[in-house]
Amino acid sequence: MTIMRWNPLQEIELLQRDMNHLINVLVPSGTNSPEKTGFTFTPPAEMTETAEAVHLKFEVPGLEAQDFDIEATADSLTVRGERKSQTTTEREGVTRTEFRYGKFSRSLSLPARIETTQVSAQYKDGVLHITLPKAETEKHKVVKVNVN
């Protein structure tokens, strides 16, 4: 049996190699299909509420206004769309991307009932802004609380 000197840097290099291999298995380079990667594109959202409306912002760069399908109910909102890959290769070889492409669907429960006929949306600079006016019954809703 041969005695070898322990090298902690070699252990770190082995760990890094194993982690890189794991990432390459989960997100293979040159593959943008969610079915192949196991990941789907989910746009981040931000919700704010005022006395008059609920305001939502979705961060979805690289789309056009007509790419969105927005459905509103009295107490929820669903935004669907698809970010398509634009593959252009300037040179031969392997291309690697960390962008997420494909169809997405994001549903959110709303903190108040809304007037579905007055919902408006605007897409500018990669951010989808949605304004959801509150229903009249929600605007003036006052609840009397008894103290025991």
Task: Describe the overall structure.
The chain is α+β, with helices and mostly antiparallel strands. It has 2 domains: 31 residues; 85 residues, Sandwich (Immunoglobulin-like), CATH 2.60.40. The protein has 3 helices and 7 strands. It has a 4-stranded antiparallel beta sheet with strand order 1-2-7-6, with no helix packed on it. A 3-stranded antiparallel beta sheet has the order 3-4-5, with no helix packed on it. The longest helix is centred in the N-terminal third of the chain and has 19 residues. The protein is elongated.
Write a short abstract of this structure.
By secondary structure, the chain is an alpha+beta fold.
Describe the secondary-structure layout.
Blueprint: H1 8-26, H2 34-37, E1 45-49, E2 53-59, E3 69-72, E4 76-83, E5 102-109, E6 120-124, E7 127-133, H3 136-139
Antiparallel strand pairs: 1-2, 2-7, 3-4, 4-5, 6-7
Helix-strand string: HHEEEEEEEH
CATH fold-level label of the largest domain: Immunoglobulin-like
The second-level CATH architecture of the largest domain is Sandwich
What number of structural domains do the residues give? 2
- Measure the end-to-end span: 80 Å
Radius of gyration (CA) equals 24 Å
The total count of strands amounts to: 7
User: If helices are DSSP runs of H or I spanning 4 or more residues, what is the number of helices?
Assistant: 3
Helix content: 10-25%
In the CATH scheme, the class of the largest domain would be Mainly Beta
Mean pLDDT: 80
Strand ordering within the main sheet: 1-2-7-6
Name the beta content range.
Answer: 25-35%
Kindly name the structural category: alpha+beta
Poorly predicted runs are 31-38
Coarse shape: elongated
